[in-house]
Design goal:
Chain lengths: 457, 457, 457
């Protein structure tokens, strides 16, 4: 099962160490503490009358940690549903997230504006780096089980870079609002990943088909991921919104959207699944679409009512996507989307962009009061037109699809130790696997009912 | 194993979608942002000199997220101890919690006072909705494995409503203090659920007896739930107490109560369990009783010393309840309490109410200083008499038992797709189950020791 | 498998209950709320113009909860990697942590200064108690699988006491800085545990060798522990640093150190492990070494660049330690270090102390501004010399090794129900084990593919 092609003894260490050394050198030359993490600068602020509470750390660190949990536990465990790919799901998720957050700090720093030639870092850059990482992990979901960790690192290098460019165009050049990243994170990550999956299409993937499914306990591990993503999504969407009512409102809108989405998901799953039974795939994924779909409008005066409608719609299209669209994507478009990211991040992300455009267009001074300036007019002179948001969405889709296309071809080079068609979705190719419980006679003995009884006697 | 009676293709979607549509309509007509989530109103406060930090979000959101984790991960995974009911434990917990928190927002809003015909929502209503949800999940524990998701949704509709009524009587009419809900959440949820379980008594449940127990890994999943509940209980009890010393003290009292409770639980478990061994049921449940038992008095000047005594007692009665009382409840009173909620929430809740009554009666200006007014005299003109707390407890028990009785009879109607006696505690009846690991020849091959060796070779 | 020697019916209850009663009595006589948890005292502060936000609770409680998760979930699940020791790993972790945090409150209170004969408790004492507990759990890792819970409680009593003494000497007498505990927590806990393991050396441990390894799902449970430790380490290192830039900077330095450490770990693991495959032992442990190694210097102006170099080094030595040093420790020094704490906490802790000494020695007013006073000059009149830090490290090592030696001999007494060599790493000796899934005919039937198909039909 292991041969020289997939042996990573040289490839993975080289990738990890070269990338880390490059990062360390760039951090050494370019990165500085910002005003709130630098001892001297912050104590100057204190001397000028600031309180320690004005340090952004206290506004954002709890949200940051929730986002961090989503990235490392949420995404990592959500993908453990595959029966023999748990080590890789959690482990590669861990590796590429740890890499991407460093690389994202640099790329976002370059693009979003340097301070005297230096990138300033603090809690907000940490959250933004985690966000960018989330986008990479979405793409990872599309190619899960079919890629080597070296491919994933290369993909991360490119995707993070393009993410930063797209984010700059959408948020800074076009001045769109997208605090929870319906466009910049979810739509971008999904379509980038889908395009990579398209280029890496494996016509003989059915040779590994028997491993491309879950078992009982792997589905329970995956639910850990799902539930953490679901619970902390309010923190995700509100992590970088403005202090005060904005953070508060965004968290609450997301909470309601997700709750409504969950009811829609259970209802629809029982309708479309076999024999009126619930399908774990829907519960694990579609119940989260409500968080994606209020990523743009969540900070606006969407109201709980509006949030619930959006969440309900998102859950509905996500379940329907899993049932009806995914097979079509695979058969007609030759996109093998392992985790169904099109249904969880793609379509709900586009829905989120549309909802955001409409909600922004409806914003008035009458509804937002002085909050209008704070929320919108920092970027626009008037409330944004839906046209601008539409352009943002189009740019995002364009960069994602084109970037994914190019990345796919780069990843197709036969130098990264990718798994053969016959051993996809299998940890054993990249991980030393432990022996199985019960494979030793002594253990089996202990585990027969008679022995267990004796043991407890 | 599936037949038309338990086929939920129509019933579950109808329940989910009708309920969600009703909720959305009611939210549309009745629910508004409160002063701290509304852009215009909050910016007025800012203009009047408030700081963004005065927004209650920053006082309570970290606690809210901890409570959220308890509701969705804590309760959900605690119940995965059943060997073949993990999907339902986590999944139905997820469904009814997502429903109940929305419904609770409405019911609590109705009952606790509308503002010009509108229900105002913000972080405090979110926490209170999660609290009410916790009560429903406690009742779920009593009927776990024996109910369909449609029954659970119907139960939630009624229980949430009665919870709000009882909470109003206890906290507003009677003016009792119960920040952590020893009475309103734990006692109420437990006795409501026990009464429902009584009415739904199944004389032939022993036909499913072989599934009503744990296996090795299901007990480990359950420990995830236990530990999260244990760790975050300080946040639960302090989430809605007054700012400042009250939140601080409540969290600390709960922390000490739980620590002492854990020592008592391990000690007692080894005494009563077979052959001096520890019993996972005790560890998973009784170690938490200390959090329940300081739900009322935790915000008072109970002292760490007092908290530890209460926790120690709670752990003791909880273990003894599991060992000696639960069999009696089942045999004599015909109450099949799957999770033993009587031992974890019922008795410790009543203990908590008593401790709260005594502690409140002992409160003096000398001990509390100006805190006395802040803590007690908002509701009473003098420190509360134990009599008032006793009435509160009696009302809670009365509404819970009567409500559970009526709910039980409603749930007994043969229209909800309840499982037959032979297939209780079994996911397969409501969930599409994955094939088992090792059931495919290819996988089995991989998993024999020889193959594993080859794989690693 | 059970005999009178390992039957804990008397021993464990006596240990738990006697210890808890002693603790409760000492708390009753000695422990008081501090100014911020006492109703009267805090309301005096409020009357004097303080805001509720000045209550330290709001600065530290989110970090405390993250630390709490590390102690109970992080350490607990990290150790579940053993195939048949999951109940004990999580369960004994739970027991000794619940004990140690109470005992630590007393010991740290005694040693660090009483207030009018009383120990004052609040959020900071809670964090410090959790820190001390962490040290005990590190030692637990060294003896995992080979000790009874009674031995572990006795070990905790002694280790917590010596921890408090050492912490007092290092932080108060010598005035060293060690906010994240590279020395006081990690170095101390590791070498204490290693010495205990040395004294408890079992020449015939290979009789249990087949259980001293993981299985597929136990490794996934362990990853829950790893990821939580990794994510929340920034909170650990920053939990008791000064408000403002210090907490902010410490969290960020730790975040970068861990990210770089992870890349180094993956790279090195593929180099040294069999056939270019990744080894779960490395990923689960070495990726965390970056958090240990910035425990001292993390609060200083180490810069992200410096943090990454330290993290990279820590990951490297940790993987190399697992590969090359652990076997030597076992064969030559007769130290059977079950979890490899020497590689995760020992060497990286010493590295952290050295890095801290160097970073402190380089501190200048020019870099720290007024922060210099705040950070260093509270303890020293000038910036600390590396010599002082070296003495601190030497004292820590001395107390840990000597303390571990004595503790080991005390634990060697044949009165604690320790497991025989043939049944180490086995839950069944101290826990009632559930029957196995599939051991009942009914269940097996359900689980054959044919039946599963029927079930889903």
């Amino acid at each position: 099962m292991t041969n020289s092609a997939t042996n990573l003894r040289l490839k993975l260490p080289m990738a990890c160490i070269i990338l880390e050394v490059i990062i360390i050198i760039l951090f050494g030359t370019l990165v500085q503490y910002d005003d709130e993490t630098d001892a001297k600068l912050w104590h100057k602020e204190i001397a000028n009358g600031s309180s320690n509470y004005d340090n952004d750390f206290y506004y954002r660190y709890p949200s940051f940690q929730d986002v961090h949990v989503m990235i490392f536990i949420g995404f990592g465990f959500l993908m453990t549903f595959l029966q023999r790919y748990g080590f890789s799901s959690v482990g590669f998720n861990f590796l590429i997230a740890a890499f991407a957050l460093q690389w994202a700090t640099l790329m976002q720093g370059f693009v979003h504006g340097m301070h005297g030639g230096k990138i300033h870092v603090g809690i907000e850059s940490m959250i933004n780096a985690d966000f960018c990482t989330g986008s990479v992990l979405i793409s990872f979901g599309a190619v899960l089980g079919k890629t080597s960790p070296v491919q994933l690192l290369v993909m991360s290098v490119i995707e993070v870079t393009l993410f930063a460019v797209n984010e700059f165009i959408v948020l800074t050049v076009l001045g769109a609002k997208d605090a929870g990243g319906s466009m910049t994170i979810h739509t971008f990550g999904a379509y980038f990943g889908l395009m990579v999956a398209r280029v890496l299409y494996r016509p003989n993937l059915d040779k590994s088909k028997h491993k491309n499914c879950s078992v009982y306990h792997s589905d329970l591990f995956a639910m850990i991921g799902t539930i953490y993503l679901w619970m902390f999504w309010p923190s995700f969407n509100s992590a970088v919104t403005a202090h005060g009512d904005d953070q508060h409102r965004t968290a609450m809108n997301t909470y309601y959207s997700l709750a409504a989405c969950t009811l829609a998901t259970y209802g629809l799953s029982a309708v479309v699944a076999h024999d009126g039974k619930l399908d774990m795939v829907h519960i694990q994924n579609a119940a989260l679409a409500g968080g994606v779909a209020v990523g743009t409008a969540g900070e606006m005066m969407l109201t709980p009512f509006g949030s619930m409608i959006v969440g309900f719609l998102a859950g509905t299209i996500s379940v329907l996507g899993f049932k009806f669209l995914s097979p079509i994507l695979e058969e007609k478009l030759k996109i093998q989307d392992t985790c169904g990211v099109h249904n969880l991040h793609g379509m709900p992300g586009v829905l989120g962009a549309i909802v955001g455009a409409v909600t922004a267009a409806l914003a008035t001074k009458d509804v937002y009061g002085d909050g209008l300036v704070c929320l919108f007019l920092t970027s626009w002179e008037s409330v944004p037109s839906p046209g601008f948001m539409a352009i943002s969405l189009a740019v995002t889709l364009g960069i994602a699809l084109l970037g994914g296309l190019i990345t796919g071809f780069i990843l197709k080079l036969p130098i990264y130790g990718a798994p053969p068609d016959t051993i996809c979705f299998e940890d054993g190719i990249y991980w030393e696997l432990p022996g199985e419980e019960g494979s030793h006679e002594e253990l089996t003995t202990v585990r027969t009912p008679d022995e267990a009884e004796k043991l407890n006697a």
